[in-house]
Amino acid sequence: xxxxxxxxxxxxxAIFDVFKQGGVRQVAYVPDAGHSxxxxxxxxxxxxxxxxxxxxxxxxxxxxxxxxxxxxAVLLMQSSGVGNCVNMLSLLQAGDFPFFTLVTMRxxxxxxxxxxxxxxxxxxxxxxLMGVHVLRVSTPxxxxxxxxxxxxxxxxxxxxxxxxxxxxxxxxxxxxxx
Amino acid sequence: xxxxxxxxxxxxxxxxxxxxxxSALMARIPAETLVVTGLGSAxxxxxxxxxxxxxxxxxxxMGGAVPVGLGLALAQPGQPVLVVTGDGEQxxxxxxxxxxxxxxxxxxxxxxxxxxxxxxxxxxxxxxSLGTDLVAVARGFGIADAFAVDEPAGCDAIxxxxxxxxxxxxxxxxxxxxxxxxxxxxxxxxxVKNRLRAALGLAPF
Lengths: 178, 205
Description:
heterodimer; A: alpha/beta; Rossmann fold; six-stranded parallel β-sheet; B: alpha/beta; two-stranded antiparallel ribbon; 9 helices; about 40% helix; globular
């Protein structure tokens, strides 16, 4: 459990700053602990519509609809959700929609749960197979810069971009309470 | 099975012609309405009623019609947004009704043309022929203004929701399982996207 009173890591705030400075108006998500500060911040921000999804592919379509209507949306998910998105990602190429997603990684670093391995190892390749450009953040210091670079590639160049947030960045999941 | 065929035949008599219904609906909606169509027959029906700059036709992305409409409705709260799709497309993205039901944009109306069939692929029966009631599903997802349309006059009720923009609505329209001549909307997605954006005063891209 993440204690809501714990201050957010600076790198998570740096990512939210990219959203705000970039005029993001819709944040769609399937929750993950690594996105918890962004989700809380989106819910608290009157200038942002927070949209909780039942499955991640809805967020791909929602982002296309937002763009049709002149707004920037971002999709937050974890690596397993990328598998749920595969066919819907064809919408981005068929309609040439800008797209930006942040993916928290599982199955790649100190992973306790073997069920996270198969999709975690296939996440980057699955995105690339569907025409999404993939960047990665591995250290807290580079989060703001790389997320900002991917965000600009999406909304200034019309790119379809995913930034993977490495599992080593998010930290080991605590499975047993001490 | 024969027992269901008899039930289907009885039900078919009460069902509406899809082209006639959609044509009447499109004639009654506010001119500024933004329309998103689900792939297959729903796209053909809306296009057959007359192409519009404010239509966005999906040719794929099955299950995506409602979430595209939701993103658009949230982005353009001052415009009515209408999603027209089929039962098969809605069933594939049925969770998106829960997502829309959680946000309930006042300017969003979803119309499902329900023939109980997967029309594009040989008229196989869908879940709505086998037990699923999409009006009950929509209500269960929090869309209180969910209703069934079994008569031609139902298009007036739908158009009224779009005019009022006073709450999210969902309509299941019982239509005949026939296949009118195909009317194919543009398949150039960027063209249709930029045409709609231009209608809203937005730059291409």
